[in-house]
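Researcher: Go.
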Amino acid sequence: MFTAIDANEKALGAGYGRSWSHAILLNLLLIAGQYAPAIAESEPQVITLTCDGTLTRTHKPTNPEELQRTSVVVNLDEQVVFFLGYVVPIKSVDGAIINFGGTLIVDYGFSTSISGHIDRASGRMDVTTVTLDPTKPNDPDIAALRYDVGCEGF
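Model: Structure:
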């Protein structure tokens, strides 16, 4: 029996029809590949870390205290870091470091300034928080805390 496919192969030369379909398939794959980065970029960029380390009170120097294991969430889409109940804006991100910081108004007009960075290669995170009492603006015993932690999850 003679079919239309046989006629095409004879007209185009044996095997040419397959080469044509391979060319179409290759073009479709190339076109799909152009959209792959856009699809990957639209996925959420959220990093969840588990951290252990120490807490040091810097306003009244004491020995470092062990910090209970805590989670840190870095949301690169929203440009924020969530740490110990604080949501802090990210200032800059590169392949090596995530820098974050800002001032938040908390209960009764107290303000807490937070600055920190995460070293993406080592997983080390350093954070300093300073809480100011609006009724004692020049108090030398402000609550300043330094967190030095190691994180896993990158």
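Model: The CA atoms of residues 73 and 125 lie 12 Å apart.
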